[in-house]
Design brief:
The structure holds 2 protein chains of 2 kinds. Helix content of chain A is about 75%, strand content about 0%. Chain A is mainly alpha-helical. In chain A, about 35% of the residues are buried. The chains are: A mainly alpha, B alpha/beta.
Chain lengths: ~250, ~260
């Protein structure tokens, strides 16, 4: 069996060099590590999508004629941009989670309304979403006022202008900044460690506690996050290319 | 879908002015840009507004489709009060097409899509029917074959003709042209003017702010001269250009012709 041969080779590597990659040769550690990796990917994808949605809706609400709505959005941005993400996670899980009433689950147990994973998603999405609001706003402000006027003259409503003209142009303008924030978000998912969400860092800590291979696991972690961010950046660049407009900005050459 | 306003639903009949401005005033802060402007534009008429920079020409034309709200006076398009707070702006703007100095096409959509967007999004018309109309309009402005080009791939004159087709796709009753050749190279000015002239000759009601005196003389039914927020003089082009009465008109024409 190929798997056995590989396991054997890594076991030998450990015995001869001391490089202890239990996540390769030990089935239990391998499973733990892969499930942690899966949790990181899950958190990242869900939070990226929700935070982009928050950014789009927030930037739209910032242009509202109602002062109350604008004030609420700006307040949200200030709160989540000006406080540390770890404090936000603690606030949601330990603070808000304690205050909220518990519900009965299928077995009749009193459980919190949201699990730690769900609180991590809420918290990280809001954190990244606050930055996304500002990022989309910068894109919207870069669209010439006259382009909006042309849409007005054609009878578009405020929402129609946002959806069909402003947002498509703003996304293209702000993609590099959005890119940065999403990379940050992916890395910030490690903070979910603090509320025992079994993501990559959390399971790695379990593995190195059991196997006493801290330096090796540290290097594994660095490599894993480098690769994950690399994949995200690759996808974002593909998206950027797909959205490029011939004769406009970077889409100059067709 | 809002009801299409037909002559009569607010007492307006086609023999009355299609666009009527009465004592329109507008200030930007301290600066009074329009100091009581009145004008009537009949259906099928081509009207040119000329005058020195800063005389309020562009503001005047932008008031007609409510892009600029006025301070006092009245503007009626087909009898409908433009500054009525109850007015559904869509009802007004589907009657009034506008073409801008800087074309203002949507850069992320092809030429054909630019023409098709508003009828589909705003008027909720059938996509197939709109596409057929859009292709016909592209042919009309002599841009067949450029349907799939993006605005950034077209020359200024071509972009401006797409902008004209885009406005026409809404089937407006009146077209506003705000210095539409001012940003163009001299050699492409003509292709745009030819398109506008054809429109005027077909009976489209056109209101143009322009510096093209030759065009105004040939195409306009009526010429207005504005200076410092007032209409100083107006008349048919023949008498307006050959026999201006007001000294300000004479001075302006003397400088320009």
């Amino acid at each position: 069996m190929a798997m056995d041969a590989i396991s054997h080779w890594f076991l030998e590597l450990y015995e001869t060099t001391g490089i202890n990659l239990t996540i390769v040769y030990d089935a239990y550690d391998r499973k733990r590590f892969l499930s942690g990796l899966g949790m990181t990917v899950y958190l990242s994808v869900v939070c990226i999508l929700i935070s982009i949605a928050i950014g789009m809706v927030g930037a739209w609400a910032q242009g509202s004629p109602l002062r109350v709505v604008r004030g609420l959005v700006n307040g949200f941005v200030v709160v989540f941009r000006n406080t540390p993400p770890l404090v936000q996670i603690f606030f949601f899980y330990f603070g808000l989670g304690q205050i909220l009433p518990r519900i009965e689950d299928a077995d009749g147990m009193r459980v919190p309304i949201l699990t730690n994973v769900q609180w991590a998603i809420v918290s990280l999405s809001l954190f990244a979403g606050a930055f996304n609001v500002e990022i989309f706003r910068s894109g919207i402000e870069a669209v010439p006022r006259t382009t909006t006027e042309a849409a007005q003259a054609l009878g578009y409503t405020r929402f129609g202008i946002y959806r069909h003209v402003l947002l498509p142009l703003a996304v293209r303008i702000c993609l590099p900044a959005l890119n940065n924030n999403l990379v940050n978000l992916l890395k910030t998912t490690t903070l979910a460690y603090a509320i025992a969400v079994p993501e990559t860092l959390y399971v790695s800590k379990q593995i190195w506690t059991d196997s006493q291979n801290v330096p090796v696991m540290m290097i594994v972690l660095l490599c894993v996050y480098t690769a994950l961010v690399g994949i995200l950046v690759f996808i974002m660049h593909r998206w950027e290319k797909a959205l490029a407009i011939p004769g406009y900005g970077q889409g100059g050459a067709r | 879908m809002p009801p299409v306003s037909s002559p009569g639903d607010n007492g307006w009949t086609p023999d009355q002015p299609l666009v009527r401005l009465m004592d329109v005033r507008k200030s930007f802060g301290e600066l009074e840009v329009l100091k009581g402007v009145s004008m009537d534009v009949a259906k099928g008429e081509a009207v040119c507004i000329i005058g020195p920079s800063g005389s309020g020409k562009s503001t005047l034309i932008r008031c007609i489709n409510a892009l600029v709200p006025i301070d006092s006076g009245t503007i009626r398009v087909e009898g409908q009060e433009v500054n009525d707070p109850e007015l559904d702006k869509l009802t007004l703007r589907r009657k009034v097409g506008m073409v801008f100095q800087q074309y203002n096409l949507f850069p992320h959509r092809t030429a054909l899509q630019n023409v098709m967007m508003a009828p589909i999004h705003v008027l909720k018309q059938d996509k197939k029917e709109v596409e057929a109309r859009a292709r016909a309009l592209m042919a009309k402005v002599r841009l067949s074959g450029k349907e799939n080009a993006y605005p950034g791939e077209l020359s200024g004159g071509q972009q401006q003709r797409v902008a004209i087709a885009r406005a026409l796709a809404m089937r407006p009753d009146v077209m506003l042209f705000d210095e539409v050749t001012a940003a163009l190279d001299p050699e492409t000015v003509k292709e745009v003017l030819v398109t506008i002239r054809e429109l005027a000759e077909e009976g489209m009601t056109c209101i143009l702010v322009t510096h093209e005196m030759g065009f105004a003389r040939e195409v306009a039914d009526h010429v207005y001269f504005t200076d410092a927020g007032l209409i100083v003089e107006h008349g048919p082009p023949a008498s307006f250009f050959s026999d201006p009465r007001d000294p300000r008109t004479r001075e302006f024409l003397g400088q320009i012709l």
